[in-house]
Write a structure and sequence with these properties.
It is a single chain. With 314 residues, this protein is α/β, with parallel strands linked by helices. It is 32% helix and 15% strand. The protein has one domain: TIM Barrel. The protein has helices at 3-7, 67-77, 84-90, 123-136, 156-171, 184-190, 222-234, 257-260, 267-283, 303-309; strands at 37-40, 94-100, 112-115, 117-122, 142-150, 194-198, 213-216, 242-245, 292-295. Strands 1, 2, 3, 4, 5, 6, 7, 8 and 9 form a 9-stranded mixed β-sheet that branches. A hairpin with a 1-residue loop joins strand 3 (112-115) and strand 4 (117-122). It is globular, with a radius of gyration of 19 Å. The N and C termini lie close together (10 Å). The relative contact order is 0.17. It holds the Pfam family PI-PLC-X. This is PI-PLC X domain-containing protein 1-like. Residues 29-199 form the Phosphatidylinositol-specific phospholipase C X domain.
Amino acid sequence: MQTSAKNKVKRGAMRYSDWMSELPPALHDIPLFNLAIPGSHDSMSYDLDISSPIAEPKRLKKFSRFYCVRRLMLKWGATQEETIIKQLDAGVRYFDLRVARKPDDANPTRLYFYHGLYTRTDVESILKVINDWAERHPKEVIILALSHFHGFDKRTEELHNHLVNFIKNLFGTKVVQREVTPTLRSCWDQRTNVIVSYDYPAKYHSHLWSKISYFYGDSMDRTKIESELSQVLKNRPSHCFFVCGLNLTLPENIRILKYILRMCDNFANVVRRSLPKLLPWLKQQASKKPNIVASDLATHEGFISTVIQLNAIK
């Protein structure tokens, strides 16, 4: 990697706001499938609304009226701390965006993000923020992975049509068409820099990419996460985007009490203890060509720089 890019490691959180445009020319023509790209897991969870009803899990929805339950959901559901803009400025280029409709919302097409609780900010507002950033940074390619579509069941077609049309009209000609194999140079030449993955097969269009496979360890155990992802990288998908998720996953059975009953702890603190221990393993994976690497607390010191520097050996 060029010296100027390496020197940015020593600067502040803004050092990677234009890291793609500063990569050496040798990396401008390789498929983006083979570029190491930092991502954030449950990207909007910094915005969870403690006053909202519980979206999931289903068995806890009836406890939405209890503040203590919602507070617990917030403590263990917030996987990110920084806003979308700060994540972008810090170098994140892949966003895990889980879309939902709030029950009984007076606006028939208003949508939110969710992770246990719903977010305070609606989907359209956040996509507009991302679009504005993309216009200011035309050489930075952003990958948006929209999925889940919780609460769409009663008005499926109406809501999908509204969201797809909004995306198409908002990003316009900046959208990378899915028929091409994108490289940085091809995106720059065509003046495109937004890739939209939409995990709903009935709504595949030329401007929407299909689901991006997301591999993760499904565990709170760092060793298991490393083992699972090592197997993925041995048989890495080719000719498509894929995500290696370094994120931790709380158990879905009684073992979850081991974590959530720690009165002075929360999910962010657990990640702060575990993520630095995962980064040495990640550094060793450069030759295996990981593609998108996503994490909780993606702006935590060391994660983004470690992912970007994996490109130095490509």
